[in-house]
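Thread: quick sanity check before group meeting

JM: Hey all, I'm pulling together slides for Thursday and realized we never actually wrote out the predicted structure for the chain we discussed last week. Dropping the sequence here so it's in one place. If anyone has concerns about the input, flag it before I start.
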Amino acid sequence: MEEICTRAGASKRTIERLFQQDTRLTLGRWRQQLRLMHSMRLLAQGMKINSVALEAGYSSPSAFILMFRSALGTSPGQYFQRVPSHNLG
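JM (edit): ok, ran it. Output follows.
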């Protein structure tokens, strides 16, 4: 973020405000969505929850599962039981 601010000649707050204006997401929410999408790919490839949680930057599998449930309304295990793998691209 510091490098972006330096290159743009703008403050962190200005960059965050412009990002939210363009994407309709806060930077934190965007990061969470990116981490969720990355973790879904890993889970679809068969990686274990513990490894996916750490790879996605969560401190524990339970923190990851809580985020996943909050975002998608179900646990990773239940989600992947219901979604055919060919729909994950």
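AS: nice. The mean pLDDT is 89. The CA atoms of residues 35 and 56 lie 6 Å apart.
JM: adding both to the slides.
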